[in-house]
Amino acid sequence: MKRRRWTWLILAALGLALGVYHNHRMHHRESNPFTALIRGLLLPLQRGARTATDSTGQFFATLTRAREALRDYDHLALENARLKQELEQMRAVAAENKSLHQILNLRPQLPGEWVGCRVVAVYPQPGQQTLLIDKGSRDGVLPGAPVMGGEGLIGVVERADTATAIVRMLTAPRMAVSARVLNPQKASTGVCEGRGESMLMLNFIPPEAPLQAGDKVVSAGLGGKYPPNLPIGVVERVWLDRQYSVKKAWVRPAVDFEQIRVALVKRGR
Fold first, then answer.
1. Are 107 and 148 spatial neighbours (Cβ–Cβ below 8 Å)?
2. 203 and 238 Cβ atoms separated by less than 8 Å
3. pLDDT in the model for residue 104
4. CB neighbours of 119 closer than 8 A, spacing ≥ 6?
5. Alpha-carbon distances of 168 from 109, 133, 192, 231, rounded to whole Å
6. Which DSSP string corresponds to 69-113?
7. Is 44 helix (H, G, I), strand (E, B) or coil?
């Protein structure tokens, strides 16, 4: 306890002596080596503290700007998504208007009575390849009725309920329609068959018949199920089947089945 008192007394005396010495040097305008020493020791610490403070301030300022940039990015991303959605809706409306315009131009050329319908759902999966329309038996739609889009032939009604009907696409397995190939040299007749794929198989074309990629294919009207001259598609590739002595071809359908929104269906058979 006594040692601690003596220690404090000595320190107080030294502090008092330093204070007196400092005042004496300042009074005579002389530099104080102790003060210079202390300043020399403290100045780097002050500079370091100032640098650390400035760096911390810059860090928080950068962090604030980064947060603002993230908020701006989120806002722009939401706005971009909204504009994309509106653009897709506008494209869908434009495509539907185009189909309606084509159907209106096509309707007077079709024999019999046809009724407009909307496509409720499309099932393009291999092995299924059907679509659902919003017209049924109460509208005079019966199984076997052909269905047309603005671009061309879609398929045939497979089953009709009271208010809806299931339409089998041309590309579905076991679908077949008599077809004419409009080659500039000579038109040829064959059969377009569905194979459960995205393309149609054009079969039973005479081996000597002129046939080439780019030829348009329309319905031939044989059998009475489909009216003649309905667009079916365009020839993509031709080859000769030597086993059966016939020409065959892959035909790309005129209709984009997954994009169909409106159609015409014939009343009755």
1. no
2. no
3. 67
4. 131, 132, 133, 260, 261, 262, 263
5. 23, 11, 14, 17
6. HHHHHHHHHHHHHHHHHHHHHHHHHHHHHHHHHHHHHHGGGS-S-
7. helix
Q: Is the dihedral of CA 166, 170, 176, 179 positive or negative?
A: positive
Q: Identify the structural domains of the chain with CATH numbers, from first to last.
A: 176-254 (2.40.10.350)
Structure tokens, 45: 């610490």
Give 258: exposed, middle or buried? Use CB within 10 Å, 0-12, 13-18, 19+: exposed
* 89: its two tokens: 């809706």
pLDDT digits (tens, 9 = 90+) for 182-235: 999 999 999 999 998 899 999 999 999 999 999 999 999 998 889 899 999 999
| DSSP strand pairing (130-133 vs 200-205) | unpaired
Rounded CA gap, 78 and 40, in Å? Answer: 58
Length of the chain measured in residues: 269
Predicted pLDDT at 20: 55
Q: What is the dihedral of CA 157, 161, 162, 168, to 10 degrees?
A: -20
- Residue at 108: amino acid letter: P
State how far the Cα of 186 lies from the Cα of 54, in Å rounded to an integer. Answer: 87
Helices (H), the chain: 2-27, 33-106
Which residue type sits at 62?
T
Q: CA–CA distance from 111 to each of 32, 229, 230 (Å)?
A: 117, 11, 11
